[in-house]
Every structure is written in structure tokens, then in C-alpha cells.
Design goal:
The complex is a heterodimer. Chain A is built from twelve helices and ten strands. Chain A is an alpha+beta fold. Chain A folds into three domains: 113 residues, Acyl-CoA dehydrogenase/oxidase, N-terminal domain (Butyryl-Coa Dehydrogenase, subunit A, domain 1, Orthogonal Bundle); 105 residues, Beta Barrel (Butyryl-CoA Dehydrogenase, subunit A, domain 2); 149 residues, Butyryl-CoA Dehydrogenase, subunit A, domain 3. Chain A has a four-stranded mixed beta sheet with strand order 1-4-5-8, covered by helices on one side. Chain B folds into three domains: 83 residues, no CATH class; 112 residues, Beta Barrel (Butyryl-CoA Dehydrogenase, subunit A, domain 2); 140 residues, Up-down Bundle (Butyryl-CoA Dehydrogenase, subunit A, domain 3), CATH 1.20.140. In chain B, a hairpin with a 2-residue loop joins strand 9 and strand 10. In chain B, helix 4 packs parallel to helix 8. Chain B is globular, with a radius of gyration of 22 Å. The two termini of chain B are 41 Å apart. Chains A and B meet through strand 6, strand 9, helix 8, helix 9 and helix 10 of A and strand 9, helix 10, helix 11 and helix 12 of B. Bound molecules: flavin-adenine dinucleotide (FAD). Flavin-adenine dinucleotide sits at the interface of chains B and A.
């Protein structure tokens, strides 16, 4: 057992922290949240130059051969700056799926340009009725000639408004709730028949509703085996959950550190409010929860790519629950201890609060993970 | 002890219910259905409808326009308003400065101000807090210098809720720098529109709405006739007022509404072949909140009953503020959880992603973090309980 970062990982952390602080602090996000795209291609290209976009892709596919732990290290720092570039959508979700499922040609066509920062990607899997059920899919792909014709609607697609290519989950067989019969296709963002409705969200980032009406794609747009994508989707969403734990840890740390600083600085009744024992105890509890969120993120990042899916699921769910519960404790108390200014838009704490709440509801909320956990061997095994 | 209603009370309930049903305009009913997020203009419209019926201020004495209802009738009225999702009236005139003027104002002030408050013709806001006087309210610095028949005000208030809609502001200001901080404070009423030098600057909350303002005073002249109570005697009155504020501030009505809204949303949310409302885990979570609310409601009724026989609201209003606002927040959290991924949405999310009846939930959830901060933060309420009720020794 060893929880130390390697020298290389320590370097990645320091460099990312420095880059975020200098190049993309929260003030940059504040400006971008007013814009249509919500993020900047120039910054995306610079993130590619830093080597971040391909860090966890095997060298054989042109990446740096790192692990999910490397991704988590970067994500935590991006979380601190509320960096709006589509790292989770493009690198963690779509990048992960391509790396797992794409053949050599597909990798060249979609993964390579993304790693180089020339394109960005999205993964469209949720539908209005599906909530967190990953097998609930009404979008269908029918075989026409050599290719496929896709129809249906996806919601809350991260980076769906800006992606050059979208990986879409569609049914090639089975009924609405069946795990079998799901397939993944790569669709161009500007494909005929694809309507994109941009959706501004609570956290100031953008997602999209994507409407597919008879969108035609050729046979080489199918990823992996037809009808066999469920496990891949599950895995991608678990990676998303692990990424949420890592990015969320960044916000948890910011909220915690800013609150402690404020307790020392703000005076009422002629003394710093941090001298009131009631608040000291809240701050201590926040510290404890932050350490647990840190532990949870470490757990999730180590296990995100675990080959045994039973183990992966149990560990990811445990970690995500901690982010939800512990993160919530920290975010609500941060606002409380800031008092009135905590609920003003001009303070950054509210922005961290919102992003953390969004991450809380992405890739399975607390109830969903608790419910999934109960169905796993890790829980059923009594001895 | 008795909780059930007499036949007369049941009849009263029927009367109230059918009157509300007849009197609420159609557009208001539609908004009531859609989550009861009313525009300020609608709140005032409802105020005037209630006023015409004589029901705008059930808590006021009859001589000044109250209803003369007993506790049960007031509770019934309140329950029926909640059931119909009627707009909640602005508390600053009816529940705050109104009762204060009734208790401490002179005859002229009563004549001048109470009728307009009752009729909803003049809208009020509360100017207590300042940047350096939040929890430590007695530290307030807004200066009022005596100049003949007037005071000249200089300084700043902040977090003034709905000052942008208000005609009048009641302020605590410093009329003396001598002695203890609490001893140099006076209670003034200022006409926002007709006084030079009062400037209201609304700013955004985390809910994305302009709910509060900075209010600036620059050589603003306020007649001494607008002082309620004695000069330098504002503090004890202000504290009495906070007692009134806190009972209403428990958000019981809002929690009831919120729970109904959660249930409706859960019923409309498909999960596989059934709905979220059929999900045993989520159902139980809603049930727990509704059950706790019941205990809080009874606690509130007990406090109301005590107030009716002349007990000033004391530390129990602090308890009510704590448990009430905590529940109110928990209900908004539940509302968010009911949304699932839709909780990512915001006020400007298009209908294709977020149905209109869900549009304001995230905004309210964010804004209502303030419920445990405003009206004296919950930490301060705990200090009050431990000091004044439990008489625990200080450090
Ligand atoms: C949405 C909103 C609307 C408002 N509307 C109005 C209005 O209309 N009119 C008006 O006058 N004011 C209004 N307020 C102001 C409100 O009353 C103050 O925000 C509140 O009193 C807290 O003051 P503060 O914000 O300065 O926080 P601070 O007093 O700085 O408190 C910061 C933190 O320290 C804690 N704390 C402070 N002292 C102690 C102590 N002794 N022991 C333990 N903990 C302590 C507080 O609980 C809080 O958690 C509003 C506030 C909000 C958020």
C-alpha cells in the first residue's frame, strides 16, 4: 500500500496548480459564463500543449500512458479554478470510451485530434425519462444499407453544444429498459438532422439537448460490437463519477480554505468570528469531511479502471456518496459562515457551491449510488 | 387540550376556502399551480384583494383593521392560504413595522402609517444591517445628526430586501455615540422617494434574482416626527420587532408548499415503469419531512396561542426560527434531489431541458441558504437560547 504521488505526479500537480492560478483563475470563468460557448478553443489547445488531454491514453494510441490518478490530479486543480473547458466530457467520458472501444482508424479520426486540442467531444447517454438508469434508452438506430439511421433525444449532454463529435448511445435491439441491444455511434456535431438546443446550467456551464431525426451515419461510425455497449456505458459513467469526485475535491478545498480564512478575517462583536467556539467546531467538522472527500477521490481514482466491475462499482459508489454528503456539509456551512455575503453572486463561494451541487447530481446522485451499492457483492457478503 | 375543530370553525374554514377560490384571479391560480413563484406585482394584487375583504392583517388588533380572529381562526386562515398556494404577503409592513407602530407609535404615526400599510398602498423595507453590523447589530454606524426638527442621515445599510420596490424604509440609526452601543440607537421611518440623498442599489443573489440592495444615505433629511419611541430608545423596540419577525420567519408556510411541490414533481417524474413518488426511498424521505413539519406546526400554534394571551414572543421564537428554517432548506434540498439531473438547470434553461414548473427550483434552493442567515443567524438564535432561556454561564 502506498498513497504517495510519484515524483512525476507531484510535478503534474504543481504545474497544473500554477497554470490554473495564472492562466485560468475563477475570474476567467466569471467572464466566460456570460458567453455562448462558455469556454475557449484557444485555452483547450493550450491544455493539449500541457499534455493533459492525452495523459491517460496508452502510448500505443498516441497518449502518455498515464492512469486515472493522473487525470484526478489535473481535475482537482481545474475544479479549484472552475475551469469550464470540457475536460470531463471530452477526455474522461468520450476519450475513455474511444480508447477502450475504437479501432485504429477510429482512434486516428476522433481521439488523436481531440488529444491535440483541435477538437472536443461529448458523450450523449441520458434521456428525459431515464434519470440515472443507464439502460433506459429510447433513442434508436436502424440499419439502412451499409450504415445506420439514428432518431431520438438526449438531454444534459455535457459539451453537447460545442462538440465536434458526439458519441451517442442508441438502441439497435431490445426494449426501452433492456441492457442488451445498446450500441455506440460517433456522430458529427454538424450532422444533417441533428438539432442542438444549448442549455445554460446552474453552474454557469453549458450542456445541450440533442435531437436526432433520421441522422445517417456510415458503418464505420459504430464503436465496438453492435448491441453490446451497456458495460462500456456503465464504465464511462463510473469514470465520470470518479472525475466528479476529483473535480469536486477542488471545490471542496476552495470552500474550506476560503471559509477558514474568512473566520480569521471577519470581525463581529469586536473579535474575529473564528474565535466563537460554535464556529470553530463547524470548521473542524468541515476539515474532517474535506479529508474524507480527499480519501474518496483517491479511492475513486485508483479503482476507476478496475477490471472487476463489481469492485469498481462498489468503490466508485462509496466515493461518490462521500462527495455528495461530505461535499454538501462543506458547501452549506461555507455559505452559512460567510453570512449575508455568502448568498451574493459577486462572491466566488456561490460559484463553487453551484458547481459542486451539479457534480453531486451528475453520474448518479447519492440515492442512486446507495441503491446500486446494495445490489453488489460487496454489500451482500455478510462475512 | 384539544386539536380538533368545532362545527363553527369547520364552517369558518369552508367560508375561507370558497372565498379564496372565488377571489384569486385566474393567472394567479395558474402561477400557484406552477410552484407559487409570484411576481412582486401579484403579491401586491393579492394584498389588495385581502384588504378589500378586511383580511390583510389577521394579527392586528381590531381597532386598527385586524380581523379579531382567535388563534384557531388565524391558523385555519393560514392553512387555507397555503392549500390554495396564495401569495405570501410582504412581511415588512404588516408583520414588522406595523405591529411596532401599533405598540410604540404615537397617535399621529398610527393615523399616518397604519392605514396605508394595511391597504398595501405603501410598501416597506427593513434597514437594520450594515456591512459591519450584521450579527453584531448594535455596532451600526448610520449616523443621524440632530438639525432643528430633522435628523440628517449619513451612512449605509445593506442586504435591504426588496428596497427597490419599497416606498418607505424603517432604519436603526445612531443618534448618540455615548455610553453603551445599544444606548445610542433610534428607530426612524424614512420616505425613500421623497427624501433627497437616499439611494437604493439592488444586487444579485446566488439565486440569480435581485432580492436585496445596498441602501445609501447622503445628507438625507428625516423629520423627527418620524421617530418611533424615544431618542436613543430604539434598541429595545428593535429587539421586540425581531421577536415578531422570527415567528413568521420559520418558513412553515413555505415548507408546506415546498412539500406539496416535491410530491407533485415526484409524481410527474418517470422512473422506469413507475414514478419517483413510488420509489420507496424517496417517498420515505418526503414522509419524514412532512412528519417533522407536523411537530413544528404544533409548536408554532402553541407559541401563537401563548401570544394571544399576552406572552411576548421570547426564546421560543428563536427555536422556531432554527427548526423552521432548517426544515425549509431541507425541503428545497429534497426538491433538488427530486429533479435528478434536471437539478443542473437554471432560470434560463430552455423548456426542452427543464419544464417550466421546475425552472425556479434551483434558484430558490440557492437563495434559501439565506434562511438560516437572515433575521438573526441561527448561530445567534442558539446564543439567545443558551443565554436567556437556559441561562448557561458565559466563558
Ligand atoms: C437574503 C437576505 C436578506 C436580508 N434582508 C435583510 C433586510 O431586509 N434588512 C436587514 O436589515 N438585513 C437583512 N439581511 C441581513 C441579515 O440580517 C444579516 O445577514 C445577518 O444578521 C448576518 O449578518 P452578516 O451577514 O453580517 O454575517 P456575520 O454577522 O458576519 O456572520 C458571519 C457568520 O458568523 C456567525 N456568527 C456571528 N456572530 C456569532 C456569534 N457571536 N456566535 C456564533 N456565531 C456567530 C454567523 O452566524 C454567521 O454564520 C438579509 C440577509 C440576507 C442573506
Amino acid at each position: 500500500m502506498n498513497f504517495d504521488l510519484t515524483e512525476e505526479q507531484q510535478m503534474i500537480m504543481d504545474q497544473t496548480a500554477k497554470f490554473v492560478a495564472q492562466e485560468t483563475p475563477v475570474s476567467r470563468f466569471r467572464k466566460l459564463r456570460e458567453t455562448e460557448r462558455g469556454w475557449e478553443p484557444e485555452m483547450w489547445a493550450r491544455m493539449a500543449e500541457q499534455g493533459w488531454l492525452g495523459i491517460a491514453i496508452p502510448e500505443a494510441q498516441g497518449g502518455f500512458g498515464g492512469s486515472f490518478v493522473d487525470l484526478a490530479i489535473i481535475l482537482e486543480q481545474l475544479g479549484r479554478g472552475l475551469v469550464p473547458e470540457p475536460f470531463i466530457a471530452s477526455v474522461v467520458l468520450a476519450g475513455g470510451i474511444l480508447s477502450d472501444q475504437a479501432d485504429e482508424k477510429q482512434c486516428e479520426a476522433y481521439l488523436t485530434p481531440m488529444m491535440e486540442g483541435q477538437t472536443s467531444l461529448a458523450f450523449a447517454y441520458s434521456e428525459t425519462q431515464s434519470r440515472y438508469n443507464l439502460s433506459d434508452c429510447l433513442t434508436r438506430a436502424e440499419k439502412v444499407g451499409d450504415g445506420w439511421k439514428i432518431s431520438g433525444e438526449k438531454v444534459w449532454v455535457l459539451n453537447g453544444h460545442a462538440a465536434d463529435q458526439i458519441i451517442v448511445a442508441a438502441r439497435t435491439g431490445g426494449d426501452q429498459l433492456d441492457e442488451s441491444g445498446l450500441s455506440l455511434f460517433v456522430v458529427d456535431g454538424d450532422a444533417q438532422g441533428l438539432e442542438c438546443i444549448r442549455v445554460p446550467g446552474m453552474d454557469g456551464q453549458r450542456t445541450a439537448v440533442l435531437r436526432f431525426t433520421d441522422v445517417e451515419v456510415s458503418a464505420d461510425r459504430l464503436l465496438g460490437r453492435e448491441g453490446d455497449a451497456f458495460a462500456t456505458i456503465e464504465k464511462a459513467v463510473d469514470r465520470g463519477a470518479a472525475a466528479a469526485c476529483a473535480e469536486g475535491l477542488g471545490q471542496v478545498r476552495e470552500l474550506f480554505e476560503r471559509t477558514v480564512a474568512y473566520l480569521k478575517e471577519r470581525e463581529q462583536f469586536g473579535v474575529p468570528i473564528g474565535s466563537f467556539q460554535a464556529l470553530q467546531h463547524i470548521a473542524s467538522d468541515m476539515y474532517a469531511e474535506m479529508e474524507l472527500c480527499n480519501s474518496a477521490s483517491i479511492l475513486a481514482s485508483i479503482q476507476a479502471d478496475h477490471p472487476d466491475s463489481e469492485i469498481r462499482k462498489a468503490e466508485i459508489s462509496a466515493a461518490k456518496l462521500q462527495l455528495s454528503d461530505g461535499g454538501w456539509f462543506i458547501q452549506k456551512n461555507a455559505i452559512q459562515l460567510f453570512g449575508g455575503i455568502g448568498v451574493t453572486d459577486e462572491q466566488d463561494e456561490g460559484l463553487f457551491f453551484k458547481r459542486l451541487r451539479v457534480l453531486n447530481g451528475l453520474f448518479g446522485d447519492a440515492d442512486w449510488h446507495v441503491s446500486r451499492f446494495q445490489s453488489l457483492k460487496a454489500f451482500e457478503a455478510v462475512v | 387540550m384539544e386539536l380538533s375543530y368545532t362545527p363553527e370553525q369547520d364552517q369558518f374554514r369552508d367560508e375561507v376556502r370558497s372565498w379564496i377560490a372565488e377571489s384569486m384571479p385566474a393567472t394567479m391560480k395558474k402561477h400557484a399551480e406552477d410552484g407559487a413563484n409570484f411576481e412582486h406585482t401579484e403579491v401586491m394584487e393579492w394584498h389588495k384583494i385581502l384588504y378589500a375583504k378586511g383580511w390583510a392583517a389577521p394579527g392586528w388588533p381590531e381597532e386598527v383593521g385586524g380581523t379579531g380572529w382567535d388563534v384557531s381562526q388565524r391558523a385555519i386562515f393560514q392553512e387555507e392560504c397555503v392549500r390554495a398556494n396564495a401569495p405570501s404577503l410582504s412581511p415588512f409592513g404588516l408583520s414588522m413595522v406595523g405591529p411596532l407602530i401599533i405598540q410604540y407609535g404615537n397617535e399621529e404615526q398610527k393615523k399616518r402609517f397604519l392605514p396605508a400599510i394595511l391597504a398595501g398602498e405603501e410598501i416597506w423595507c427593513q434597514g437594520y444591517s450594515e456591512p459591519n453590523a450584521g450579527s453584531d447589530l448594535a455596532n451600526l454606524q448610520l449616523r443621524a445628526e440632530s438639525d432643528g426638527d430633522d435628523y440628517i442621515l449619513n451612512g449605509q445599510k445593506t442586504w435591504t430586501t426588496y428596497a427597490q420596490y419599497a416606498d418607505w424604509i424603517f432604519v436603526l440609526c445612531r443618534t448618540s455615540a455615548e455610553g453603551k452601543k445599544q444606548e445610542g440607537i433610534s428607530f426612524l421611518l424614512a420616505d425613500i422617494h421623497n427624501t433627497d440623498g437616499i439611494d437604493v442599489k439592488p444586487f444579485l443573489t446566488t439565486g440569480g434574482t435581485l432580492a436585496f440592495s445596498e441602501t445609501w444615505f447622503k445628507d438625507a433629511r428625516v423629520p423627527k416626527a418620524n421617530r418611533v419611541g424615544p431618542e436613543n430608545g430604539g434598541w429595545s423596540m428593535a429587539k421586540a420587532l425581531l421577536g415578531h419577525e422570527r415567528t413568521g420567519i420559520g418558513g412553515i408556510t413555505e415548507s408546506e408548499r415546498g412539500l406539496t411541490q416535491v410530491k407533485k414533481n415526484a409524481q410527474r417524474t418517470a422512473v422506469g415503469n413507475s414514478t419517483l413518488f413510488d420509489d420507496p426511498t424517496f417517498r420515505a424521505r418526503i414522509a419524514r419531512k412532512q412528519m417533522r413539519l407536523r411537530a413544528i406546526e404544533i409548536f408554532n400554534l402553541r407559541a401563537l396561542a401563548a401570544a394571544q394571551v399576552g406572552h411576548a414572543p421570547g426564546a421560543e421564537s428563536s427555536v422556531l426560527k432554527i427548526v423552521g428554517t432548517e426544515l425549509q432548506q431541507e425541503v428545497t434540498e429534497l426538491s433538488m434531489d427530486a429533479l435528478g439531473q434536471n437539478a443542473m438547470g437554471w432560470l434560463d434553461s430552455p423548456e426542452e431541458a427543464l419544464p417550466s414548473h421546475q425552472q425556479a427550483i434551483a434558484s430558490q434552493f440557492n437563495y434559501l441558504r439565506a434562511a438560516t442567515i437572515y433575521g438573526g443567524s441561527n448561530e445567534i438564535q442558539k446564543n439567545i437560547i443558551s443565554k436567556h432561556l437556559l441561562r448557561l454561564p458565559s466563558a
